[in-house]
Amino acid sequence: MGLGSAVLNRDARSASRLLSLIEDGDPRATAELKELYSHTGKSYLIGITGPPGSGKSTLADQLIAHYRSQGLRIGMLAIDPSSPFSGGAVLGDRIRMQRHATDSDVFIRSMANRNWPGGLSQAAGEAVRVLEAYGCDPVIVETVGVGQSEIEVARLAYTTILVCTPATGDKIQALKAGVIEIADIIVMNKADLPDAEHASKSIEMIIGMKPPSSWRVPVVSSVARDGKGIDKVIDAIEAHRRVMESTGTLTRKKLETAKSQLREIIWRKLCETARARLPGDSELEQYAEQLMRGSGDPYSLAEEVVRKLG
Amino acid sequence: MGLGSAVLNRDARSASRLLSLIEDGDPRATAELKELYSHTGKSYLIGITGPPGSGKSTLADQLIAHYRSQGLRIGMLAIDPSSPFSGGAVLGDRIRMQRHATDSDVFIRSMANRNWPGGLSQAAGEAVRVLEAYGCDPVIVETVGVGQSEIEVARLAYTTILVCTPATGDKIQALKAGVIEIADIIVMNKADLPDAEHASKSIEMIIGMKPPSSWRVPVVSSVARDGKGIDKVIDAIEAHRRVMESTGTLTRKKLETAKSQLREIIWRKLCETARARLPGDSELEQYAEQLMRGSGDPYSLAEEVVRKLG
């Protein structure tokens, strides 16, 4: 039995193995993903992002505990785009989540940046499919940091939570441009710290400047460490989900994700074809010698070579 | 008159303008570079690399002063691969070099990382061509830091100088793998600091482990700030240049550079062609809808699409 079928049969080791193939950019993953695909696309995807130290993992941990209490099987991907090594920055998070470690219905996996051929969002998108096929619903995607890669990964999620703390304070203005754009819910965590109320108000002001739409981004206060405010976060997720479903935004979002994944896969295939057409080393050497003799320039020569390739 | 011709006529503003086009990845640069190409490839390229704070710019400044005293026209590119903004980290260097600022025979330019279509080394290679066409010989390429991009840029140079200080000390072991490989001359700068001799000896020991070749990498002590040891650095550059020329290594190096530049240009053209073949948005939308209806998977669909493209 292939890995794909084994994942559909809820075999944890096969899921782990397939995720490793994806993480390594191994082409053997494709055949397995083909097999899974029709069994995916139905789980709800929750994104958690925010600056380091804001308490994303603690919040994720609380959400997992909540969904487990409802008897759901939960998947979680922790993605660190800045680290080329797996298990480094996120190892701490995994340790913190030890209370779920022996629970076979909680599948937690960290992925680090490995120069994937299709980019981080492609690899993350494929990893989500595996967790869906393994029967996880919801799937939580946590990204470390607030850079461009994180924003791309967050786009995969249907409901994206931005976790801030009062300490994020003045940096909020800087966050505004990219991250607040993608947030559906903002959690002001560590709300027991001084200035929490002021910080929440600042964020609400920024949100107030957004054009009105069917969803008004709520700012929810929490102290994730103590489980305070988690119920309000859950309520906000459910409310956002209902709006996404009733307005057709969810369907639209899934369509957009499918489109961009398809574009990425086609692009990768076209690149492979292009790479195969590159002249070999000895042919290049002849051209280079021609240039060194003072005949022509590399731009015109390249045009000629590509024209000959047809 | 085009920019290319104006650069060949030694018009500084045109050289500056063409470098900006290259820095911006503007396709209009290509026609100008075609025009320049046959007038380039003759200047001697000196690379300076090393950790931040080692005194690279001060050394470059002294080398410029030396070559100016010989009546040569000098070009210098300061490249900061880590910064997406121009003029930031290297602004200080340019200020330090103010003594050359009003000298029309010294052309200093900083370039920062801008996601160039052909990569950093491609853009740096093109910028070097412009300085050559402008009549600069030698051209100094200074890179900030010691990462992979710096190593690629350093490969452009015929003689690469690695600048260390006694403070680099224990990090030398870490530098060993990549940077010492590409160094033709090692300058132990700030040699008036304690432990300078010990640090030089450590580096000599590492160099001693390299297989013997026609060039034995010297470790030269300097206090660039006071102009001490600069004559020995110049001597080492000249000695290395003579070996490069007499053994044919220089010709080989130029051929390798031409090959890799040509490969890069052809690859870029093939990618452009591939990009033009990507299905349009409405076609992708139809495919995505097909996937959403549960028919097929994106991998098989992509294969089909690419096959149809022929």
> Could you give me the name of the CATH homologous superfamily of the largest domain in chain A?
P-loop containing nucleotide triphosphate hydrolases
The structural domain count of chain A equals 2
Largest sheet of chain A: 7 strands, parallel
Please estimate the helix content of chain A: 40-55%
The CATH architecture designation of the largest domain in chain A is 3-Layer(aba) Sandwich
- Our measurement of the CA-to-CA distance between the termini of chain A, rounded to an integer number of angstroms, reads 43 Å
Textual characterization of the structure:
2 copies of one chain form a homodimer. Chain A is an alpha/beta fold. The first copy, chain A, has 2 domains: 38-253, Rossmann fold (3-Layer(aba) Sandwich), CATH 3.40.50.300; 264-309, no CATH class. Chain A has 13 helices and 7 strands. Chain A has helices at residues 3-8, 12-23, 29-37, 56-69, 91-96, 120-133, 148-154, 172-182, 196-208, 230-246, 249-277, 281-292, 298-309; strands at residues 45-49, 74-80, 106-112, 139-143, 159-164, 185-188, 219-221. A 7-stranded parallel sheet of chain A has the order 3-2-4-1-5-6-7, sandwiched between helices. In chain A, helix 2 (12-23) runs antiparallel to helix 6 (120-133). The longest helix of chain A is centred in the last third of the chain and has 29 residues, at 249-277. The first copy, chain A, is globular. Chains A and B meet through helix 3, helix 11, helix 12 and helix 13 of A and helix 3, helix 11, helix 12 and helix 13 of B.
